Amino acid sequence: MDDHKKKVYDKVYGYEGVYEPSHGLLDLLYKRLRRREINRYQVTYDLLPSIGKGGRLLDVGCGDGDLVFICREKFGECYGIDISDVRVERAKRRALEKHTNNIYFYVCDVDEGLPFSDSFFDAVTCISVLEHVFNPPNVVNEIHRVLKLGGVFIVQVPNVAWLPYRIQLLFGKLPKTGGVYLGADWELLHWFTKDVLVKLLLASGFQIKQVACSGIFAKYRKIWPSLLSGDLIIKAINVDR
User: Fold this and answer.
1) 110 within domain boundaries
2) Is 176 left (phi over 0), alpha (psi -120 to 50) or beta?
3) Residue 160 sits in which domain range?
């Protein structure tokens, strides 16, 4: 693993500086309507099948393990990988505190490949990660490799074609998905649209089963996700070995 790259991610996760606060109209409206928000992890949980004792789940870019702990009841074994040892250590501590069995966390740079054999998993999740890796096509191909035929892949990315982002670009401002410093979100390496993400998945041997989104009024916004959704959550099936 590239030590310099890992240090960059560790610094991002451990950063305690002050980001520029947001005071726009959309931010104020969001705070008012947040009670109607559907969390991205809840959407992912609902899309995942319940495999049971013999099933294996991998969460790519697991962070502190939030999604792994939420979904563990659906699988016999759950794995989480992340490039940051800071976050992997947090996840391991949480597993010890919760006395959970059959949950495993590893430090891994997904850009360099996944340390698992072919067709090892029944399901793989990749939530708010693909936009941060150096080579998304290689990462998706690796995920395809470790998934069983018929296995489920759920991926979430920011949608640059979301209407508010289009308006921001019209006025010369960059879209903002997370912490903003000096007018930009420096943590993102890539932006996606629905069309781009679908093409990427199809080219890697996946079949699109469902397109969803998270956020406020998500069940209505998914009617036209390419325009109305700030993120894209796609459930895909491995159909090509």
Assistant:
1) yes
2) beta
3) 3-13+23-238
57 bridge partner residues? 78, 123
**Residue-wise pLDDT tens digits, 128-162:** 999 999 999 999 999 999 999 999 999 999 999 99
Give how many domains the chain has, as a whole number. Answer: 1
Coil, strand or helix at 139: helix
- Answer whether residue 88 is part of any domain: yes
CA dihedral 173, 136, 70, 65 (to 10 degrees): -90
pTM of the entire structure? Answer: 0.86
Mode of pairing for the β-strands spanning 75-82 and 103-107: parallel
Q: Tell me if 18 is assigned to some domain.
A: no
Burial track 157-183 (b if 16+ CB lie within 10 A, e otherwise)? bbbbbbeebeebeeeeeebbbeebeee
Q: Which residues contact 75 (CB under 8 A, 6 or more apart)?
A: 51, 52, 55, 56, 57, 122, 123
In the three-class reduction of DSSP (H, G, I as helix; E, B as strand; rest coil), residue 210 is classed as strand
The CATH number for 98's domain is 3.40.50.150
Both tokens assigned to 111: 């850009």
What Å distances lie between residue 62 and 66, 67, 97, 124, 176, CA to CA?
A: 7, 7, 18, 11, 22
Helices and strands (DSSP H and E) totals, the chain:
10, 9
Q: Are the C-beta atoms of 69 and 98 separated by less than 8 Å?
A: yes
156-201 residue pLDDT tens = 999 999 999 999 899 988 887 766 666 667 778 899 999 999 999 9
